[in-house]
Amino acid sequence: MKRILVSGGAGFIGSHLCTRLIEDGHDVICLDNLFTGSKENILHLMGNHHFEFVRHDVTYPYSAEVDEIYNLACPASPVHYQYDAIQTIKTSVMGAINMLGLAMRVNAKILQASTSEVYGDPMIHPQPESYWGNVNPIGIRSCYDEGKRCAETLFMDYHRQNNVRIKVIRIFNTYGPRMLANDGRVVSNFVVQALRNEDITIYGSGKQTRSFQYINDLIEGMIRMMATEDDFIGPVNIGNPNEFSILQLAEKVIELTHSKSRIVFKTLPHDDPKQRQPDITRAKEKLRWSPTVELEEGLIRMIEYFREHRV
Questions:
Q1: CA distance 235 to 244
Q2: Does the active-site annotation cover 131?
Q3: pTM, entire model
Q4: What burial letters (b/e) apply to 98-121, b meaning 16+ CB within 10 Å?
């Protein structure tokens, strides 16, 4: 049994990770300021004596005796991270400094949940970890993109300078139960609109592509990455390499929900990437990991969740 800290543990990804860690027999401290996280996401864990919830903002230091840290804290959808751009970049940068400082003090292993957004609007397709990216440093998405890039820099420098045991993963588009209905991400947007028989909004032509990963696959990848030997630090892409256009996704959601929704097209937001697809060769080789849940199966599970919650 380990004592594990999950920052951002009441969020979409964090709550699934906390659940898995509890199921695996560990003690878990869930740290969250509830900006985008929710107590509803972790309500099923509240009565478990192996679980502790602490309301805390990672831009301020935190102390606890722990064996491992998963640093997930940061709003991850454009609607939320652009709401307070300065706080978003502070969460990525100061949050990384504070969590790395804690890891250094207690000799904990720490994993950074980075993002495919570090690749920006990529010029290479699919994206390997060796690609440095094509990111606009002054755009409306920069608070998130550059914040995560800076966090990776901090992790590497704490490792090189202070021998902190680090792991870095880059998470590609992930979906599943407990996503916020209003978080502005494409899968939840389409499912909610379809269930309400509202127009499904596609920005741009719909020909831009994404690769969609189900939450359970991501959590498995994170657990495997944390368990690797200390000399392997990453970064590692964790995502589903099967590529779909946004238009294909909208049509599939309409089909699975039997919706009466129409597809409407609006102007593409600034700096929206045209392609996003992970090269997962490193994850296959180093983690023996590859995704197991394909898009239709995952969408069915997510649609059931949103139906139950009467969006």
A1: 24
A2: no
A3: 0.93
A4: bbbbbbbeeebbbbbbbbbbbbbb
Report how far apart, in Å, the C-alpha atoms of 93 and of each of 36, 74, 137, 148 are: 18, 10, 15, 8
- The DSSP code for 117 is G
Could you tell me if 140 and 82 are in contact, meaning their C-beta atoms sit under 8 angstroms apart? Answer: yes
Mean pLDDT by 10 residues, the chain (311 residues): 97 97 98 94 97 98 98 84 90 98 98 96 94 94 95 98 98 93 86 94 89 96 97 97 94 96 86 82 98 96 90 62
What is the structure's pLDDT at 79? 77
Orientation of helix 12-23 relative to helix 215-226, angle to 10°: 60
Say which of 70, 144, 158, 214 is annotated catalytic: 144
Distance CA 183, CA 76 (A): 9
> What's the length of the chain?
311
